[in-house]
Design a protein that fits this description.
There is one protein chain. By secondary structure, this protein is an alpha/beta fold. The chain has three domains: about 70 residues; about 260 residues, Type I PLP-dependent aspartate aminotransferase-like (Major domain) (Aspartate Aminotransferase, domain 2, 3-Layer(aba) Sandwich); about 100 residues, Aspartate Aminotransferase, domain 1, CATH 3.90.1150. It has 16 helices and eleven strands. Strand 10 and strand 11 form a beta hairpin. Bound molecules: pyridoxal-5'-phosphate. The site of pyridoxal-5'-phosphate (PLP) has 13 residues, from helix 6.
Length: about 450
């Protein structure tokens, strides 16, 4: 009989060595020079791994330690400032291992009640930060893309319940909305009515009204606002956008995959005026709320339309108790990992004040860095940061110089920063989500850029 499910003294040692590696991975600073290696090199190293006899646990761990991990960028390095990095807490990361070890089916209450109750408590915390009523509810998904898709499918379904004979459908979103929102429109085969942004990259009520005006060619069922655009961290004027949604009876979904995490601190929450009026919102704890991948929260003001849109039915599902809270009903999925549990465990371990404090550190670092950029004659600050993304530009740098600096400093392990563009022109973008990113280290980058040729 295969021994791979058996447990003996050798297994015990093996299990401890894997856990030991996980702890080491967390505890010891990662080499920031780690990053992608050529496919041919990795394929060659892996050639003997999957064979009829297997390479063995010892050899598999050697491959992980010596070959595979060094070929993955440490997203939690404090000087990883590109795209949207991550900075999970120790409790959240360690508890993710427990989730894996526990084989919990998180789709239905009867399978995962204990875990789902805790996930729901974390979701209620998020809903409460936003100011949604106690009846709000939702589910943890794999990422912001899955959140946007599931929320907009719900919004469309709710619209069709009210307008069964509606023709071609569309939702409205700005030019700055995340790529996943446009991808959602393609998957749903609906149009996007584009809303222009103001000089600070935000959706305003006036621009939304202008975009909705005279669009008799499509039935618009929702507006997607951003609470923290990915490129510049801009927050749409949610309160006034909510007025327009109320006037036109439109579902308001806020994509806060990155930025809504800031709600956990009072200064961050103060920037989200109107969030209490949304029909649904998404926030990814795996981005800026200190949870490991993959963890994204989708919260509905009223979860009932989501259940009507998403619940799956089949003979083999008849046994599921539909009177209970079944997370599978609130998004496009059936089986699910209880991926909200590491966030809950971390919240329970450290308390919500620790979250506010960590959030404030990142906000203050971004603010301090932006002020330093603005004070320098050799750099331009392109936009006042609303959150923790800063766009800036050294004077007279050609695109090639950006690429060289970025590649060299990544190679040396100094920092990972990649250029973006703003208003059609190349610039630097940094995104701070890690409380261990220091202002001194960031200021050193400015000095370094100033002398880089
Ligand atoms: C604002 C925003 N929405 C959605 C997403 C997509 O999230 P995910 O990559 O978790 O699918 C991102 C990712 O960066 C984002 O920044």
């Amino acid at each position: 009989m295969a021994s791979m499910h058996a447990w003996d003294a050798k297994t015990e040692l093996f299990a401890h060595s894997v856990i030991g590696y996980a702890i080491e991975r967390l505890r010891i600073p990662k080499d920031p020079r780690w990053g992608s290696h050529p496919r041919s090199e990795l394929d060659a190293a892996l050639a003997h791994a999957i064979t009829p006899d297997g390479a063995g646990g010892h050899e598999a761990m050697r491959l992980v330690r010596e070959v595979l991990m060094p070929a993955c960028r440490p997203m939690d390095d404090p000087m990883n400032l590109a795209y949207v990095p991550t900075a999970p807490t120790v409790a959240a990361t360690m508890f993710d291992l427990v989730v894996s070890a526990s084989s919990i089916f998180g789709g239905a209450w009867e399978g995962g009640a204990g875990a789902i109750a805790a996930e729901n408590q974390a979701l209620r915390w998020l809903a409460g930060l936003a100011g949604l009523p106690d009846t709000a509810g939702g589910v943890f998904l794999s990422g912001g893309s899955a959140v946007n898709l599931s929320a907009l499918v719900t919004a469309r379904s709710a619209y069709r319940e009210r307008h069964p004979h509606a023709g071609p459908l569309a939702f409205a979103a700005t030019t700055e909305v995340h790529a996943s929102v446009r991808a959602t429109a393609r998957v749903m085969d609906v149009d996007v009515v584009t809303v222009e942004v103001d000089e600070n990259d935000r959706m305003t009520a006036a621009a939304l009204r202008h975009a909705l005006h005279d669009r008799d060619d499509v039935s618009i069922f929702a507006v997607v606002a951003s609470a923290g655009t990915t490129n510049s961290g801009a927050i749409d004027l949610i309160d006034e956008v909510a007025d327009v949604c109320a006037e036109h009876d439109l579902w308001l979904h806020v994509d806060g995959a990155y930025g809504l995490a800031a709600m956990c601190s009072p200064q961050g929450r103060a920037r989200m005026a109107g969030i209490e009026r949304v029909d649904s919102f998404g926030v990814d704890p795996h981005k800026w709320l200190f949870a490991p991948y993959d963890c994204a929260a989708l919260v509905y003001r009223d979860p009932a339309p989501a259940a009507r849109a998403h619940a799956q039915h089949g003979d083999y599902l008849d046994a599921v108790d539909r009177q209970e809270w079944n997370p599978t009903d609130y998004a496009y999925h059936l089986s699910r990992r209880v991926r909200g549990l590491p966030l809950w465990f971390s919240l329970a371990t450290y308390g919500t004040d620790a979250y506010a404090e960590a959030m404030d550190i990142t906000l203050d670092t971004a603010r301090g860095f932006a002020d330093a950029v603005a004070a320098r004659p050799d750099f331009d600050l392109l936009l006042e940061p609303e959150l923790s993304i800063v766009l800036f530009r050294p004077h007279d740098w050609a695109p090639e110089r950006y690429r060289r600096w970025s590649a060299q400093r990544a190679h040396e392990g100094v920092a990972l920063i990649v250029p973006t563009s703003w208003r059609g022109e190349i610039c630097w973008r940094i995104c701070i989500v890690n409380p261990h990113t220091t202002i001194d280290a960031l200021l050193a980058l400015l000095d370094d850029m100033a002398t880089f040729v």
